[in-house]
Write the structure tokens for this entry.
Amino acid sequence: MANRAGENLAFLRDKMGADKMFGKIAFAGALACLCAMAGAHLGAQDLQKLKHVASVDSSTSAESSTSAKYAASAKSGEIVESSVPKQRGKIFARAHSLQLIMAGDALLHTAVFKDAEELAKSLNKAKAESSKIDSNASNTESTKAESKGAESKKVDSGNAESSASNAESSTNATTPAYYFDPMFDNISHFIKRADLAFYNQETILGGSALGLSSYPAFNSPQEFGDTMLRLGFRLVSLANNHTLDRGEKGVRAMLEYWHAKERAHSDLCIAGSYESANDRAKSRIYEKNGISYAMLAYTYGTNGIKIPEGKDYLVNVYTKQMLQDDIAALRDKVDLLIASMHWGVEYSFVPSKEQREFAAFLASLGVDIIIGNHPHVIQPIERIGDTLVIYSLGNFISGQKGTNKRIGMLASVRVSLLSAKELKRKAKEMKKAEKERAQGLNKGEADKNSGAQEAGAQANEKSTFLHRVRLDDVRAELIYTQYDSNMRNFKLYPLRKVDDKILPESKKIYKEYTKIIDNDLVKIGL
């Protein structure tokens, strides 16, 4: 019995080591049971260790259960006192917080995908050489086996042929026509260490079969999407002024690609373009680290291209009514709501009046994070009440010329679920603010504030939605797209690491662009 109990203890320890959070919770009961069964047969030291582990894991399990109850109550809008222990520990904190990183516009001009085509040729050549070496090695082994007899020779020869055939098949199956991965080598670590990553797919990924094209009517290789998925991007906006560049046929080719990727990646969230009204009406809700979330995506227009009659679902061209309806359908169902907005004035470092007005409107509806794109240059990051607004991330990668369009931004934020105590405090503050506002209106007090930013703050104060998440540790990293005089060798760099050989007066330029986003809210550097 003692030996069996020891084996069980080792097994349970191994399981918990393999799965630090769920293993501890799931095996707490088994540990306690093992204590009772084996108490008379284990040594005092082992028994004490076993009881300690069972005690710790039971505590962790209870904590997780309480956390789930509090999260559920928050979703229903009910504010309750929390019984979550004050010392929540690393497991709880990790399970109810995440880091979101956001990148800007992927604008794939011909120069970008032509460079990727050359990279693919180099990759495929290397694969072919590697396959040839492997095949030669297999043939060498087969030759050595000839001395074992005619029957053995026949079998080994067949295996060698099969091995060579499999290697060739494998190479062909994974041979891309375009290979973008190396372009992101210098910034990929920022993406991969985040829990969630967003970018705006500015040009449709209709694929080569549709005929690749550049400005003004874009269509890009689908291999770019493969690169983005390998980097770790799982939030993709498809709503922008180029969505209809290649008509309905282009949209459907793009969606066919992304839906295939959805089947392979259950956590992939695409938004802003749909294959039918029913497809658009679906609530797409995801979860990461115990936080439920959803994303909506919109554009101001489609460069004058008319949406086919009765097919508004092909791309979300926003109106206030559309925003209000879509957000109302999702807001109470998720902890975190993100809105991607294709808006603003191209090449302007300052948010437009319309951007600020719509940001205020979205904040009043309870959106947690607003991600702006389209200007192709960076713009400030601000708060409107509890809503984080990134007015423009600039270009992620493009073939555009001009320093302003080659400098973009990666922004990140830590998202954490609020405790029940924090939610209750916020609810009281909202009631107090509402009461004071009502008293002010009754007294006929005039609104002395002016300007879109002040209007935004007021709009958020009037919001009746109680945000369930805390957004902090807001950071930004400026990035630079480098290419040579022949528009080849595309490579992204953190701007702070770019020297004068790549960008003359790089330090001066870095300081100038940092000023655009540097404020009390934003920490520079990821």
Remarks:
- The first helix runs from residue 2 to 18.
- The radius of gyration is 28 Å.
- Confidence is low (pLDDT under 50) at residues 1-93, 150-173, 448-452, 455-461.
- Residues 99-114+178-415+467-524 form a domain with the Purple Acid Phosphatase; chain A, domain 2 fold (CATH 3.60.21.10).
